[in-house]
Amino acid sequence: MLIPIILSGGVGARLWPVSRESHPKPFMKLPDGQSLLQKTFARAAALDGVGEVLTITNRELYFKSRDEYQFARKDFPGVTDTFLLEPFGRNTAAAIALGAMSVAEAHGGDALMLVLPADHLIDDQEAFSTAVKQAAGLAEQGNLVTFGIVPNAPETGFGYIEADGHVVKRFVEKPSYETALEYVGSGRYLWNSGMFCFKAAAVLEQFKIHAPAIYEHALPCWEATRNKAQANLPMREIDPESFAAIPENSIDYALMEKSDVVMVVPGRFGWSDIGSWNAISDLTVPDEAGNRVVGEVVLVDVGNSFIQSEGRMVAAIGLDNMLIIDTPDALLVADRARAQDVKKVVQQLKLMNHESCKLHRTVVRPWGTYTVLEEGKHFKIKRIVVKPGASLSLQMHYHRSEHWIVVSGTASIVNDDKNMLVRTNESTYISAGHKHRLENPGLVDLIMIEVQSGEYLGEDDIVRFDDVYGRA
């Protein structure tokens, strides 16, 4: 039995302004309209013998991930999606240890785990499937198997694996350009992809030997997680207190570089970690001047540039080797040679406590979305879309009042001690300090305009009393 484990987290700072804390890299839509997470799930679900895909992700991304997997319930009806939810990040070793305990409990210690980052791209599914079968054969013998990518360039942004056939000689850190040239020329080195295959029992045994502190703290964490799990739910929330005690380390440092049962499968399946805007650019077809565009773009005397626009016209004149990424609330303009430095912008935004490093103008919630249309001193205007049958939490705000205007659909509203139906072209007013709740009882989306007013309008001014999504 093969259980793919998708590790979905991180921020993807090099892909700002599209990738943000609340909408990280795995959820980015590629030029073909699919997200990296959707592609990873489909790639895993299409493998022979797969009946379940386990995703390990942040609690805040659970409902967004479930929405991303909606297509899979049609395309892969025989594959279930289950989740293990982290309260915060502890790097890959803790996630994989708990994932192995989950798999061993559900399917036995001999079940094979295929660990896949959520934000990689693979072009050749057939070649990937062949590599997975090779890895599974080696893993059946008790080995920890990693996938090494046959390099086609002297990349300095990846770690390398020195290999002799399937035998791993050593792992090496990201090299200088000159050293990378030597590695590629030797034919003995592979890029370290961060994908793995092993038996659940085998990887746990290696944790006991080489990372006993991780194993010893993961055991009580798993027990606490199991004990509070709710039956018949496709997810388990990891116990935060015991999870915090697990040492933070990567699987490479904790195990792969120490174990003597590590093997590698070389891969030529069109792999990319989509680590910068230049990698996104490579997914589109260039014009005669070497330009690649997504969205509405007009170019005059522009060459070798990538321009992506979301929802409005972008015009460029007299530019060369540029990146222009336009979103509704943030614009990135950069030299293509400096694509790796986009993360420095995110670092500065964090120091400024600027919301654009965390949230998009349109924010996805379990119940639907909200879009900030305009805001100023003491007011904010939002467009709210509530999915059929969904409801917001029963909540209260200390510092703001809200006016709700129904644009389309019917809203079922709790407003202090009143229950009411508000229909298209009708409105209601929520005073600060009043408990309130919004629900869509209909079969189509409920669309509303919300006008907030008050001294403080931050999203953290909220007290939840009851919530169907477990956020109270």
Element layout with pairings:
Layout: E1 2-8, H1 36-45, E2 52-58, H2 62-68, H3 72-75, E3 80-86, H4 91-107, E4 112-117, E5 121-122, H5 125-139, E6 144-149, E7 160-164, E8 167-172, H6 177-186, E9 189-199, H7 200-210, H8 212-228, E10 235-237, H9 240-243, H10 251-256, E11 262-267, E12 271-272, H11 277-281, E13 292-294, E14 297-300, E15 306-309, E16 314-317, E17 322-326, E18 331-335, H12 342-351, E19 362-365, E20 368-376, E21 379-386, E22 394-396, E23 400-408, E24 411-415, E25 418-422, E26 427-430, E27 436-439, E28 446-454, E29 463-466
Parallel strand pairs: 1-2, 1-4, 2-3, 3-10, 6-11, 13-15, 14-16, 15-17
Antiparallel strand pairs: 4-9, 5-12, 6-9, 7-8, 7-9, 17-18, 19-20, 20-21, 21-28, 22-29, 23-26, 23-28, 24-25, 24-27
What's the total count of β strands? Answer: 29
- Report the radius of gyration as a whole number of Å: 24 Å
Gross morphology:
globular
| N-C termini distance | 38 Å
- Could you name the CATH topology of the largest domain? Spore Coat Polysaccharide Biosynthesis Protein SpsA, Chain A
The portion of residues forming beta strands comes to 25-35%
Helix fraction, binned, reads 10-25%
Classified by CATH, the class of the largest domain is Alpha Beta
Q: How many helical elements?
A: 12
CATH architecture classification of the largest domain: Alpha-Beta Complex
What's the CATH superfamily of the largest domain, by name? Spore Coat Polysaccharide Biosynthesis Protein SpsA, Chain A
Q: How is the main sheet built?
A: 10 strands, mixed
Determine the structural class based on helices, strands and strand pairing: alpha/beta
Number of domains: 3
**Mean of all residue-level pLDDT scores:** 94
Low-confidence stretches: none
